[in-house]
Hints:
- The structure is a single chain.
- Helix 3 runs antiparallel to helix 4.
- This protein starts with a strand and ends in a 7-residue tail after the last strand.
- Helices cover 13% and strands 37% of the residues.
- Strands 1, 2, 3, 4, 5, 6, 7, 13, 14, 15, 20, 23, 24 and 25 form a 14-stranded mixed beta sheet that branches. It has a four-stranded mixed beta sheet with strand order 17-18-16-19.
- It folds into four domains: 5-102, Phage tail proteins - horseshoe like beta roll fold (Roll), CATH 2.30.300; 107-188 and 376-401, 3-Layer(bab) Sandwich (Phage tail protein beta-alpha-beta fold); 192-212 and 310-369, Phage tail proteins - horseshoe like beta roll fold (Roll), CATH 2.30.300; 219-308, no CATH class.
- It has 404 residues and is mostly beta strands.
Amino acid sequence: MSSVLTVRLDGQGTSWSLWTNVVIERDLDHIAGGFDIEYIDDGRIAQSLPTLTSSGPFFEIVRVGMAVTLLIDNEPVLVGYIDDVEVDWTADHLSARLRGRDKTGDLVDCAALPDGPAEFSGVDILHVAQKVCAPYGIVVRADVDIGETFDRLSKYPHETALSFLEKAARERALLLVSDGVGGLLLTRGGSSDGPSPITRPGNALGGRYTSSWQQRFSDYYVKGQSDGRVSRGAAAAPLTPATVPPSAAPADMPWIVYSPSPANIIATGHARDPEITRYRPTVRLTRSQSGMSTTQVQADWALRVAKGQGEKIVYPLLGWRAGPANALWRTNARVTVTDAYADIDKPMLIAGVRFMMSERGQMTELRVAGITAYDRINEAEKRRHRTTNAPGQAVVLTPDQAVP
């Protein structure tokens, strides 16, 4: 049974059936969901060729900047704005096309709090995100533990809202995901289950599998400068010039390089990917001072993400719904993939969903990736020992000021 697409412009409900092509897309690589619709704009036709058209009523002429809601079977799937309108006409052809994004598209384009504050203190990421998103009419919620409050979170004057929020989200190992219908979700990868497994042969009409080593490495090294108390584990004794002389470091402790000043000990995390069978090392630097445990955690995380991103499959499926509940496909959901030709039989992550309608009918294109492709790492440990709120710093937002 085919689904029904409804478009509401500026709050007016209009069910259009004159589509020639429809694409509605959400993807974890792009926070804002988007749409691209080709249609017959009989409002424009009636206005420009009144002698060739019957009497109304006609659909409203679509104009750029309009608020729009897209619904599938009366279930909202995108709430946003029309970014572009294209109309094309020749002697024997008239066509129209509109493109837009959900509300979070404004977070991608626009500045974060241009009138301040420039710094937050003593508030959690949910409060920060609510403060940034409130002027755009975007509701922020979380479906996972959001972590502790920030001692200090600074904002550059030129930062976009998305850039600033992503920086804060990384501190708490969170993923920013648009819900598509006017909200922003703080979550983590694979927090829900898809409506149905993907099987081939089965519900998958075909597939395009890519396995790549271009961004995968045999060895992941993460190097960072510590404060002189670097250790292998919690029980290890602090390292000092007396306990780790420079001559002993290369031979006895190859994981660390020691310089005469305790403030200049370089910690190195190292993770090995056994699937990469030839020598392909990569070295990354920490963003700030860190201990040995932090660099090791980052090295393990870099391996997981690269492994997940190195495996991607695109599947076309009939219809927009699936499973016993006849539910719409959604991003950031875990789904079991069984495909003998691609040699896949394991859980994977739905990274992208495209609802399409054309002369071929209604189809869904799913982009699935390795389950760890969108893992996040908690970077809060790197700032735990920083000083707080020095006098003369920019405006500080306190908890009672966090949400307007």
